[in-house]
Amino acid sequence: MSPSRAFLPGFMILTLLSGSTIGMAKIVTTLYAIDLGATPLQLGVIGAMESLGMLLLTLPAGVFIARYGARRVYFLASLGPMLLNLAIPLFSGWVWLAMFRLLIGLCIPFRMVAMSSAFLDRLRHIGNAKAGWYRAALTLGMGLLGPLLGSGLSAQVGFAGCFATIGMCFGAMAFSSLGFWRDAAPKPAAAGSASGASLWALLNDRVVSQSCLVEMLCGATHALFSTFIILLAITRAGVSQPWAASLLMVQGAALVVVLLGLGRAVQRLGTRSTYLFAMVSALAALLLLGLGSGYSVYALGAVLLSVAMALLHLLNMAQLGAQPMDKGRIGGLFNLAGLLGSCASALLGGAVAQRLGIANVFLAWIAPLVLAGGFGWLRHLRAAPGLQAMEH
């Protein structure tokens, strides 16, 4: 078995466990915050705190991994969330919950950059048809298995039991990673990943900057959906808490199907057509979520949103995987772009929801999405021949 094929099964299992744990933590945190009586603005702050913590250390994470190795860094970065999740039930109040999410967010980038850069580095050997497999495994856990486990466990063992389970999962990942990362070796080239010159060189590359812009928009849109859809479904549509939580599973399942099944189709469709189809799908989803009411309408909006994000991710991964630059630096910047979008949209969305209502959060996002998407489209039309070659 080739090294790339031997790498893929263990990598996918670890990614699936990681995604399930993160998804379980996200929905349990949301349900716990609602149980504490958090307002929409407070929900937005709580949702943004983890992204803020990740935002602060995503670029420096590449330097640490280059210096100390992925195996040691991933292990220590998994122990932090383990201990913090065990401590959450000991404190009450939304402020404490937000602070714990911030501290957990400070640990996540070291895990995230190690995983994404490893996948990007091997993508040319794995093949672009599997460009969505990493995100698919992560999403299967975050969007389907995690919410399912979190919703079921919260009803059976309470919030304290849920956070204890989440903590033990992080501990399991910490110790299992010692075997998975055994052959991983740090790359000297990644040591300069945080320097201003390196970042400017990356941002000057049309493919990298375009992919980062798209990832920022996807991160922002996904954060709005995952932060506010449960409360919207409960308050506007009157659905029960478990059914509201299942909308996250619908979105996750649709995302996984597209990521796993349409890799080759996107290659044949071409960049321009895929971008256009994704934008139309995203706008239709936001209109349904903002104007509609009822579980079936919200579920359709979730599916359309997933289609848009999955198509764009498949394009991004194929383009970035073909870049000759160091994948650790590209992975760090790519993840940073998604985090910027997630953090900003959760905070601003909370403020909009507090003043204008939760449904208007999705309608208010249409104008910025169209403007940013139009800017990205104009940049694509002027892109280098290497990017346009994907059309053929």
UniProtKB/TrEMBL annotation:
InterPro entries: MFS, MFS_Efflux_Transporters, MFS_trans_sf
Primary location group: membrane
Transmembrane segments: 41-66, 73-96, 102-120, 132-151, 157-181, 216-237, 243-262, 274-291, 297-318, 330-352, 358-378
Keywords from the UniProt entry: Cell membrane, Membrane, Transmembrane, Transmembrane helix
Keyword Phosphoprotein: no
Superkingdom as given in the UniProt entry: Bacteria
Protein name per Swiss-Prot or TrEMBL: MFS transporter
Keyword Lyase tagged: no
Topology of this chain in the membrane: Multi-pass membrane protein
Places the protein is found: Cell membrane
Database matches in Pfam families: MFS_1
